[in-house]
């Protein structure tokens, strides 16, 4: 620790109580520099060292106010010594004067890069030495004054801040757990005025200690888990501890508290005390519990609603099926069957809900596979549902999944009705990312000359309904067709086959990652 002081009088500025270190491998130089340094001011303490290693070891015990060092020395040169000095927080800003010959420009450059403050030419002029040393010591002393003033101002601002905080109890404790400071927030929250609590153990706030009628000292090993004593012991070991525990007020009422205990240590690393910040979170915990109960009730209600909706859809599907029994084949029966399939497709939504925590969201990938398997005969999702790249697991809201399911169903119906009977349709469904969204491509074989497919046409929902559904999704549909040649049989020419594709492009805003 440095005791550097500055005394200002009519005769000038006197430097007193400074610690000066001299490092030089030549004893005669050490004696000369020590004599010069001692004459800089009153009560100057000069320590001389034959090499930088001993000087650095001494710096760990006493921080110097000024260092004068030679550059070329055994064990370590001046640049290495300065870098080591700057690398330690306690000596990072200590001024260093390097003694160098006039022609040693390379040495000066290395010293400056290492962090040297000033230079003195060798042989050393006493007046120049004293002037440069005195100026640096005066600057060092002024830095101390500014630092102390800044610390005092910071402490005062902190004290005013602590006193002004009313929602948090900020309590300072000594190493034994006795209260040394009690802010207005602690008085409001815990009920004790400062005069009642100062000097008492903080264990008075423990419900277990109050029940026994004898509050334990703050650091007793027998303190219950979560008690003040246990938290102080853990903070002393780990630096700080944070947790939620029950605390008791002066009137005996208890509350749920969020508590942060931090150990404070002095410059030597010794335990100097603790800070304990306590906040009443009882209201917050009650609100969270009420919210959890309300959420649980809403989930039960939603599950019941989903169950009843799914059952009603199943009833409607069954009625439509019964209506077709005995009905002659034709457009009417085909239309009934298509309507039944649409309703069955909507029922698949409830099989793909994400679960209790997200009962209003549908897993998109599972829903798409179920639709294809349900609405297309002999569809093999493992082979015919192709994911071009890994798009991850996606979900969409239930109110958007319904319209999307209807649109996909119409596309699948179009593919099934327009597919080539000779090839079995060859339906492939591709899922791939699109710029700003996701694209589904439905590809299938068709007979040449069959004409372009019409989504929502015959037996479908109709162009107006399809347009409304697609607009609701913010999506777009595109159709294209290309002729491809099949492999020629051994006894004939190759036949032409048409490959149709219906693309449904949807915005990314429709989906969210699971």
Secondary-structure blueprint of this entry?
Blueprint: E1 5-9, E2 12-16, E3 19-23, H1 27-38, E4 45-49, H2 52-59, E5 66-70, H3 78-86, E6 96-100, H4 105-114, E7 118-121, H5 126-164, E8 169-173, E9 179-182, H6 184-190, H7 194-197, H8 207-212, H9 228-238, E10 240-248, E11 254-265, E12 271-280, H10 282-324, H11 331-347, E13 361-363, H12 364-375, H13 381-384, E14 385-387, E15 394-397, H14 398-418, E16 428-434, E17 437-446, H15 463-473, E18 476-485, E19 496-507, E20 512-513
Parallel strand pairs: 3-4, 3-5, 5-6, 6-7, 14-16
Antiparallel strand pairs: 1-2, 8-9, 8-12, 10-11, 11-12, 13-15, 15-20, 16-17, 17-19, 18-19
Give a verbal description of the structure.
The protein is an alpha/beta fold and 514 residues long. Helix 3 links the parallel strand 5 and strand 6. The protein is elongated, with a radius of gyration of 42 Å. The protein starts with a strand and ends with a strand. About 4% of the residues have low confidence.
What would a concise description of this structure say?
With 514 residues, the chain is α/β, with parallel strands linked by helices. Helix content is 42%, strand content 24%.
